[in-house]
Specification:
heterodimer, A: about 525 residues, mainly alpha, five-stranded parallel β-sheet, 26 helices, about 70% helix, globular, B: about 230 residues, alpha+beta, five-stranded mixed β-sheet, two-stranded antiparallel ribbon, 7 helices, 9 strands, about 50% helix, HATPase_C_sf (chain B), HAMP domain-containing sensor histidine kinase (chain B), His_kinase_dom (chain B), phosphoprotein (chain B)
């Protein structure tokens, strides 16, 4: 029995924690809030969609998140979790619960690398929620050091912790699964296999079976992997990760048609994953299946638009695939694609409106499209506009996509002089860690003392490469420089904080470590009242 | 449009599955509203407690029925895959009891649990929980005032027992579960489908040549019915 004293302690524990409840049904949000209040919680934020939740979590980094999987038309709960995690916003000790009325959800999603701490099947009662949160918080506390080490990619440390956790009954099973992932990440296939084998020996656990497929694919090749993956799919057609692995196995054997079929199956189950749609487009390309490629890329960009994990590459690939399709079509069909491409280009440009690179890239595609349509005058005009902007900044252009496109335009226009310049830049091997024109432009502007313009370029660069540490550090530094002569706005302060949070992931032996520490100091000093 | 007389071709089972899903969502909201109401009302007006508990019980039963329907539909289409993971049986049972706390309190039932500490087993949490929940809900309905839940490992099986001190299972039910597959009797009323469901869930848990089973008896140490679930 709980004593009165421990009851108060318990109440206090909830009062100290901050909760975030995400659901598109207001009744559900309010019910869960009431439940949490009954447990003693005082700080509870509510969000009705992933976008609001993203903003709220970024600001408060809650201790406990209860999110529905289905969040209406926008992003779903899994996508939100992935974005928070991959952008380095998610705290290691945040307890993340995914709720759904569908009780097979964890099966569809369960084998992913980025997974919530637990799944809740709706409806749940106050008491269920209470017992579950208490139990999981205790477990999470044990796992936090492991998650932190994993996030820093410090595998030696993570391995040591995971091994030690084998002594903790409540965390043992989860830690074992992480241990297998640590071995996979380090390509220690034998050690990973030992774990999977032992687990499968006990029971046909899905994650371990999938693990064995992965190991077989790496060490023995596609044929062995197929033998292991087929039975999983025979039992469960909704195991998306099994479809993904089956596709990889077929690719390994050079059978791209079978690979594409498998990926299509995975997409039918789980249509929103950017990673999977990228993969499908790539495989369709190898199959020379232009129609499917365009279809996957359209689906990809539709999803990417709402995601912080989008890349300019996603949009460029779709632009190029549509150009390809234009060239392969005739008459009215060609005009139709041309019109569609025009309106999509406008959207792409708007999406990356601050990026010089994307403005130039879309101009190049416009010129190519005009050429494909036989509109020579329009093509030339667009080409000249692009050339005017590019030539003076050629040393900053980093992406091969833009350089090669410009190169082919130069050839089409028989512009020897420009061709020489672009060839020179293509041969220039001094590339940044991230090949990003906007980052380069930012560095140039920064060293010339144009700090505010540099900030804009770095911000555009960060939009394109949200996980890049190099760019995050540049943006933070430029913002802190700007703060010397103009106080930062709330948005700018938040952006700076997010950049610094991300750059704290740098391992201690990285040569940028000291620089980041300096920036953090300056940021803290900035926020202290004078 | 051609002829009006042309019959619509409806894949009725899919329609059913979709509607069931939708109904479950509504029920989920209903149950949660009931819980909220119960939280607000029972302190000030304890006399409404039993009525609310009844509402909650019936709504949970409906929810359970829909779940069965959905699961059986999937099983029929060979789409009932198990998601086996390692669970602490104590956690599982704690949640089960917590879920029904409202009803347990309002009916003044004593629930006792006796579970080997650190007993872990490999189960499909959702399916097994909903199976056991059905049994517990049934026990709560028919017990006088006592329920006992025990769990232990025995001869390579996880054995979970739920006993009560009610009048026990009716005769028809005791004989029914043994030959479930061929005589699912829809006329037999409330529990037929539930038992069929339990049977399917249990036998879907397999290990090597061993298969899970259920057993219904009237030889409880408390004097009423005993439901036993054995999982390999």
């Amino acid at each position: 029995m709980a004593t009165a004293n421990s009851m108060t302690d318990h109440f206090q524990r909830y009062a100290k924690r901050r909760f975030l409840v995400i659901d598109d049904f207001s009744e559900f949000r309010l019910t869960v809030r009431k439940m949490l209040e009954e447990f003693g919680a005082k700080q509870i934020d509510l969000a009705s969609n992933a976008e609001d939740a993203f903003a709220l979590y970024s600001e408060f980094r809650h201790d406990v998140v209860i999110s529905d999987f289905n969040l209406g038309d926008g992003k779903d709960g899994q996508q939100l979790l992935e974005e928070l995690s991959q952008l380095g916003i998610l705290r290691h000790d945040t307890l993340y619960l995914m709720a759904s009325a569908e009780n097979s959800l964890h099966m569809v999603m369960g084998a992913l690398e980025c997974r919530p701490d637990d799944y809740l099947t709706k409806p749940f009662t106050k008491n269920t929620l209470h017992t579950r949160i208490d139990r999981l918080l205790a477990k999470k506390q044990l796992l936090t050091p492991l998650l932190k080490a994993l996030d820093e990619s410090n595998y030696a440390k993570a391995e040591a912790i995971a091994l030690k956790l084998q002594q903790e009954p409540k965390a043992r099973a989860t830690a074992l699964r992480y241990l297998s992932e640590i071995y996979i990440a380090q390509e220690k296939w034998d050690k990973a296999k030992t774990i999977f084998d032992a687990a499968v020996q006990a029971r046909p656990i899905l994650w371990a079976r999938l693990g064995l497929v992965k190991v077989a694919l790496e060490t023995e090749g596609g044929e062995s992997a197929l033998k292991l993956v087929e039975p999983i799919l025979a039992e469960n057609t909704r195991a998306v990760q099994a479809w993904d692995l089956k596709a990889l196995a077929h690719e390994n054997l050079g059978d791209y048609q079978a690979a594409q079929d498998a990926l299509q199956q995975a997409i039918n189950v789980s249509p929103r994953s950017l990673e999977r749609l990228r993969h499908a487009a790539l495989v369709a390309d190898k199959n020379q299946d232009l129609d499917s490629k365009v279809r996957y890329l359209k689906q990809l960009t539709k999803q990417a638009k709402n995601s912080s994990l989008k890349t300019p590459e996603d949009f460029i690939l779709r632009q190029k695939a549509m150009l390809e399709k234009m060239n392969a079509s005739q008459g009215m069909a060609k005009v139709k694609i041309a019109n569609e491409l025009q309106s999509l280009l406008k959207e792409d440009q708007k999406l990356y409106s601050a990026s010089h690179f994307m403005q130039w890239e879309t101009m190049a595609v416009r010129a190519e499209a005009a050429l494909a349509e036989g509109k020579k005058e329009a093509a030339k005009e667009m080409y000249l506009r692009l050339k005017k902007e590019l030539v003076s900044n050629m040393d900053c252009v980093q992406e091969d996509a833009l350089l090669t496109q410009f190169q082919s335009l130069c050839k089409a226009m028989s512009d020897e002089e420009a061709l020489l310049a672009v060839n020179k830049q293509l041969e220039n091997t001094e590339h940044e860690e991230e090949r990003c024109t906007d980052n380069r432009l930012g560095l140039k502007l920064y060293s010339d003392g144009h700090i505010k313009e540099a900030v804009k370029c770095f911000a555009a660069a960060r939009q394109q490469h949200p996980t890049s540490l190099a760019i995050a550090i540049n943006l933070a530094q430029a913002l802190l420089k700007q703060a010397e002569f103009q106080p930062l706005s709330k948005t700018e302060t938040q952006a700076c904080k997010a950049c610094l949070n991300l750059s704290l992931k740098l391992p201690e032996d990285d040569n940028r470590h000291a620089r980041v520490q300096q920036l953090v100091k300056r940021f803290v000093a900035l926020r202290e009242p004078k | 449009m051609s002829s009006k007389k042309q019959p619509l071709s409806i894949d009725f089972s899919s329609v059913l599955a979709t509607s069931v899903h939708d109904m479950k969502n509504s029920l989920c909201m209903l149950i949660q509203s009931l819980d909220t109401l119960a939280m607000q009302i029972t302190d000030e007006n304890p006399k409404y407690g039993p009525e609310l508990a009844n509402l909650h019980y019936e709504a949970s039963r409906l929810n359970g029925d829909l779940l069965h329907l959905l699961a059986l539909y999937r099983a029929d289409r060979q789409q009932l895959p198990l998601h086996i993971e390692e669970f602490f049986i104590e956690d599982l049972v704690d949640e089960l009891v917590a879920r029904n706390q409202l009803y347990i309190q309002s009916r003044g039932i004593q629930v006792e649990t006796d579970i080997e500490p650190d007993l872990c087993w490999y189960v499909d949490q959702d399916l097994v929980t909903s199976l056991l929940n059905d049994v517990l809900v049934n026990a709560m309905r028919y017990t006088q005032n006592q329920i006992q839940i025990t769990a232990r490992e025995r001869e390579g099986f996880l054995e979970i027992e739920i006993c009560d001190n009610g009048n026990g299972y009716p005769k028809e039910m005791l004989s029914m579960h043994t030959s479930m597959q061929d005589n699912l009797n829809m006329q037999s009323g409330r529990t037929g489908l539930g038992l069929f469901f339990a049977q399917i869930i249990a036998s879907a848990h397999r290990r090597n040549d061993l298969t899970g089973t259920i057993e219904l008896k009237n030889s409880s140490s408390l004097g009423g019915s005993v439901f036993t679930l054995r999982l390999p």
